[in-house]
Amino acid sequence: MQGMEIGAGLAALAFWGFIAAVVVAYYWDNIRKREAQHETLRRMLESGQALDRELMDKLLASTDGGSKNLGRDLKVAGLITLFVAPGIALLGWFIGQVSATVLPILLGVAGLVAFISIGLLVTAVVIERLYREG
Predict the structure, then answer these.
(1) pLDDT of the residue at 106
(2) Cβ–Cβ contacts within 10 Å for residue 123, how many?
(3) Are 106 and 89 in contact (CB under 8 A)?
(4) pLDDT value at position 120?
(5) What does 81-130 look like in DSSP terms, one character per residue?
(6) Predicted pLDDT of residue 78
């Protein structure tokens, strides 16, 4: 029995280690892209090339495509999360066929995920309204 507990602990550690590695890799990649942009600008200045505002904006644009739209990003995240909630509930129903105690737990998790998605969608509307006013 203790071997299963150790295995479960190692599996949880591996999962969170993977999540941490993905986050670190994402930030590392963004830092490297930013450094490359700055290096390009530095070389252009050293070579005496004229830099206009449009070129600077293009070079220093965001690494994710250059167009940041927080409202749109929150809507996308909210919609994806909204469709995860019924999936968790369905998973609970399938597992509930084997163990009756699992269904209420996973229904609670699905409810939590649904509330998170609603929060993201409401936040998207508020952010878009603030952008329009400001």
Answers:
(1) 93
(2) 16
(3) yes
(4) 94
(5) HHHHHHHHHHHHHHHHTT-TTHHHHHHHHHHHHHHHHHHHHHHHHHHHHH
(6) 93
Structure tokens at 8: 């479960």
Q: Record the tokens describing residue 61, joined without a space.
A: 């644009």
Q: What is the C-alpha to C-alpha distance for residues 5 and 2, in angstroms, rounded to an integer?
A: 5
Q: What distance in Å separates the CA atoms of residue 98 and residue 128, rounded to the nearest whole number? A: 45
Q: Which long-range contacts (CB under 8 A, 24 or more apart) does 86-90 make?
A: 86/110, 88/113
Helix (H, G, I), strand (E, B) or coil at 44: helix
Question: Rounded to an integer, what distance in angstroms lies between the CA atom of residue 4 and that of residue 20?
Answer: 24
Which residues in the chain show pLDDT less than 50? 63
Query: Would you state the torsion angle of the CA atoms of residues 75, 78, 80, 85, taken in this order, to the nearest 10 degrees?
Result: -160
**pTM score:** 0.56
Between CA 72 and CA 63 the distance in angstroms is 17
How far is residue 120's CA from residue 22's CA, in Å, rounded to a whole number? Answer: 23
* Chain centroid to CA 79: 13
Give the CA count within 13 Å in the CB-facing half-sphere of 32.
Answer: 6
